[in-house]
Amino acid sequence: MTRLPFPFPVVQWQDEQVVLIDQTLLPQQLAYRCCGDIPTLCTAIRELAVRGAPAIGVAAAYGLAMSWRAHSGAAGNLNEILGGFRTDFAALAATRPTAVNLFWALERIGGLAESLVDGGADPSTVAAALLQEADTILAEDIAMCRALGRAGAELLPEEATVLTHCNAGGLATGGYGTAIGVIYAAREMGKKIHVYADETRPLLQGARLTAWELADQGMDVTLLCDSAAASVLRRGKIDAVITGADRIAANGDSANKIGTYPLAVLARRHQVPFYIAAPISTFDPATAHGDDIEIEERASDEVACCHGLRTAPVGIAAYNPAFDVTPAELITAIITDLGVMRPPYTDSLEAWASAGESK
Ligand code: MRU
């Protein structure tokens, strides 16, 4: 097995291109997908070649930096550059609706470009500043995940078994991970952690990605089909359930991969703590309530087929929401880069957001 450098090189800037670990090919193949233009990058995001809320944000940040460079190389005047840049911004924003990190990163790079242009900066100065900002977003993501990982690891006993869903690991972020970042940090503290990873139907991020990256890192991991989680919790095998999030509303309601909400219900039923782990880029203060979060619906074939093989009758209707919302009342704590937030979340999340703004 190839051992990846850690933090994982999930998104890289190389030769004027955004280079991604192609997560559609794992675990069979570790290969990189080069995105040299915005349509190619948009396809990579839609196909989940790069996926996981923070990683999508980092990829989009580099994408916009690439867009500016391409337009400023080709176009004669500033209006033409800005026109092309804004079109690319809109194309990236239309790729996936739920993970707020995408919009957070686009606003950060797009806002910087607009303010530099307003201040009279020339195109090459803007190009350098946008690339530097994308580098900063990547570095900050790794630092925030390390910080939240440490905060979360403190919650775990010296020996613990943790259940997780989907992939909120290095592969889903700038390279360190949120829910799985907690596991890596616990290991760094010398704790002995066993992870149960839900396979995560329909696209199997748990089986293909979480199991792969934990095994790659030499961690103790056992794969479960999603429907086995209830029995494992009932048998008292789990000390904590930890997942990531794609968007956290102002009241603490959290959207994450479909199948997260039932885990939170099960955790409550069996009196096991249920934690969400996320960096500030996942918090959406503009969305008051989880019901207001747009949930991506994906192609029905993702449910009706498995690995390209049809597993349901041709023509059958299949419903495929990619995410669900866990109400704040079921979340024991939200593990963030500023520490562990307990309910009621409204005030603590606001303080977290202001700290993020003043950075
Ligand atoms: O559809 P995906 O694979 O992008 O969904 C990813 C998740 O739901 C993750 O749990 C979430 O983005 C948090 S990643 C740190």
Description:
By secondary structure, the chain is of the alpha/beta class. It folds into two domains: 135 residues, translation initiation factor eif-2b, domain 1 (Four Helix Bundle (Hemerythrin (Met), subunit A)), CATH 1.20.120.420; 208 residues, 3-Layer(aba) Sandwich (Rossmann fold), CATH 3.40.50. It contains eleven helices and 16 strands. The strands form four sheets. It has a seven-stranded mixed sheet, sandwiched between helices. A four-stranded mixed sheet has the order 11-8-9-14, covered by helices on one side. The chain has a three-stranded antiparallel sheet with strand order 1-2-3. It binds 5-S-methyl-1-O-phosphono-5-thio-D-ribulose (MRU). The site of 5-S-methyl-1-O-phosphono-5-thio-D-ribulose has 19 residues, from helix 2 and strand 9.
Q: Name the beta content range.
A: 15-25%
Q: Count helical runs.
A: 11
Largest sheet data: 7 strands, mixed
What is the CATH superfamily label of the largest domain?
Translation initiation factor eif-2b, domain 2
What fold name stands as the CATH topology of the largest domain? Rossmann fold
Low-confidence stretches: none
CATH architecture level-2 label of the largest domain: 3-Layer(aba) Sandwich
Biggest β-sheet: strands ordered side by side in the sheet: 6-5-4-7-10-15-16
Q: Quick one: how many beta strands?
A: 16
Structural class: alpha/beta
Q: Compute the average pLDDT.
A: 96
Number of domains: 2
CATH C-level label of the largest domain: Alpha Beta
Which cofactors or ions or other ligands sit in this model? 5-S-methyl-1-O-phosphono-5-thio-D-ribulose
